[in-house]
Amino acid sequence: MLDWWLPENVSTYGRDIDWLFHLIYWITGLTAILVFATMLVFLVMYRDRPGRRARYTHGNTTLEIVWTVIPSLILVVLTFLSAPAWSRIKIQAPPASDFVVHVTAKQFNWQVTYPGPDGQFGTADDKTLLDEMHVPVNKVVHVHLRSQDVIHSFFVPNFRMKQDAVPGREIVQWFEATKTGKYELPCAELCGFGHSGMRGWIYVHTPADYQKWAAENLRAEAAPAAAEEKKPEEAKPQPAPAKGGAPRVAPRPGGTLPDDSPGVHKLKPAVEQW
After folding, report:
1. Which of 29, 154, 164, 198 suits 94 as a labelling partner, its CA being 20 to 30 A distant?
2. Closest CA to 179 of 205, 150, 141, 156
């Protein structure tokens, strides 16, 4: 219908959004044509002519009720028509998926974080990319959205997806891309002087291409660590006894000491407040 002037839809729920958009467009378009046509007719009918005097009219109560009730009914109908799509996308729990990424918005870029080889977020092996996200096609993706400073808006026109990132909150948004390609990720909320340059890209790969990318970028450092763990214990140097008969404590990998060694103080982990 009007798809030629919208960005290509490549998401599972984009068709529902487009249908509502087209419906609202036709209603407002026809209303605009009716209003302007009536205005032109009145300009001709009530134009200034010799011997014709202007007169005061209070208006028409019936007509005023009609043009108030009809738009109200249209809004009510649109509300009921849009409720299923809105509920599916925003209110109901996202479809189950094991693919999760964390996105932190900040002036003026997107920080996209993937879990590292351990599969857990919040650990030292997390992988953070700047202004780019990589996902497989036909896979539900959960995006945990945060803001580090001001309100931003995570907007992907081709996915028909838009969600504000609010400081102090973590909001879960989801999408499922249906076509491979490179899609723009701009910020749709005025967030400061560099707002116009806050733009990222989402790369949608085939499953095979995504696995190849993930192996090269997300799990690339797992192999050396695994090889280190496979070294036989007897190959490690044994600590020599200290003076006085007490054994010296061997450092753990990375130079740290066991928590129960003398002189080691346990520190409480820092908790990041959002």
Report:
1. 198
2. 205
Structure tokens at 68: 């108030």
The domains of the chain are located at 10-46+60-91, 100-222
Alpha-carbon distance 87 to 79, whole Å? 12
Q: Which long-range contacts does 91-95 make (Cβ < 8 Å, 24+ apart)?
A: 94/140, 94/142, 94/172, 94/173, 94/174, 95/140, 95/174, 95/176
Angle, helices 14-45/61-86, rounded to nearest 10 degrees: 170
Alpha-carbon dihedral sign for residues 250, 251, 257, 262: positive
Whole-Å CA distances, 33 to 28, 85, 185: 9, 29, 35
Helix ranges (H only) for 13-127 are: 14-45, 61-86
Query: What tokens appear for 32 in the block?
Result: 């605009």
Condensed to tens digits (0 to 9), the pLDDT of residues 173-213 reads 999 999 999 999 999 999 999 999 999 999 999 999 999 99
Average pLDDT, the chain: 82
Distance CA 168, CA 190 (A): 18
Cis preceding-peptide flag for 175 (omega within 30 of 0): no
d(CA 260, CA 202): 47
Quickly state the pLDDT bin for 221 (edges 50, 70, 90).
low
Give CATH superfamily name and number for 100-222. Cupredoxins -  blue copper proteins (2.60.40.420)
3-state percent breakdown (helix, strand, coil) of the chain, nearest 5: 35, 25, 40
**Please, are residues 200 and 131 in contact by the beta-carbon 8 Å criterion?**
yes
Dist CA 18 CA 3 (whole Å)? 8
